[in-house]
């Protein structure tokens, strides 16, 4: 077997890490469910009030399935039940990331389990976050964001970086500090004859954080620096 080593990339790619395990669980307010495209509803099952999520636009009197039974919606909630909180996490099932949401009240109840990618892409499109959506490549407990432009070459050292990648790195580090995790691999090759930047960039961030609109907006803005 022959070696086909891309030595300049191996030796010259800059890597910046905020070490730690990717965040797997995060608290979300009920307005986040709306932004993901869901309503929180309640119904009566075996004499007990239960909660579930339905596609946005649910109405009282409609039915949904719960543990093999049809349950009629008694209320479309605008707030969580008293003293209740909701926590979302990412679970992997046969190589696919799923978004799981638990409602923590008097008892804990799972109210949502859906493929994370489908909901995340719809969420990013709905809220006009194209830079994140276009950069998204893979989803696990961490999401991989990739941007690249132009032909590769010899990567610049950190000292040689122009203002654009420096601004991106500065903002990305602030975001990673708030998320508690992140990893950026950046190879900046300079500009082509037309003055356009040439680069390769990969950014790992916690998948669950992308469901937080505030963080997703900050990441989108940071990625926009990389024209």
UniProtKB/TrEMBL annotation:
InterPro entries: UPF0128. This is Uncharacterized protein family UPF0128. It comes from Nitratifractor salsuginis (strain DSM 16511 / JCM 12458 / E9I37-1).
């Amino acid at each position: 077997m022959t070696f086909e080593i891309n030595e300049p990339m191996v030796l010259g790619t800059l890597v910046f890490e905020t070490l730690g395990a990717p965040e797997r669980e995060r608290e979300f307010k009920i307005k986040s469910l709306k932004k993901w495209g869901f309503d929180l509803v309640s119904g009566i099952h075996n004499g007990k009030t239960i909660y579930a999520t339905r596609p946005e636009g649910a109405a009282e009197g409609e039915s949904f399935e719960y543990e093999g039974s049809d349950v009629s919606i008694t209320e479309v909630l605008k707030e969580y039940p008293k003293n209740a909180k909701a926590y979302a996490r990412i679970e992997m099932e046969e190589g696919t990331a799923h978004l799981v949401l638990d409602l923590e009240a008097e008892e804990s109840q799972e109210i949502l389990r859906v493929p994370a990618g489908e909901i995340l892409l719809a969420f990013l499109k709905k809220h006009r976050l194209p830079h994140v959506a276009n950069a998204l490549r893979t989803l696990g407990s961490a999401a991989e964001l990739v941007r690249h432009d132009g032909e590769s070459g010899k990567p610049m050292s950190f000292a040689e970086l122009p203002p654009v990648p420096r601004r991106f790195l500065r903002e990305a580090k602030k975001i990673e500090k708030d998320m508690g995790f992140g990893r950026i691999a950046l190879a900046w090759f300079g500009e082509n004859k037309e003055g356009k930047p040439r680069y390769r960039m990969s950014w790992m961030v916690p998948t669950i954080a992308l469901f937080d609109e505030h963080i997703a907006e900050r990441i989108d803005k940071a990625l926009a620096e990389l024209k």
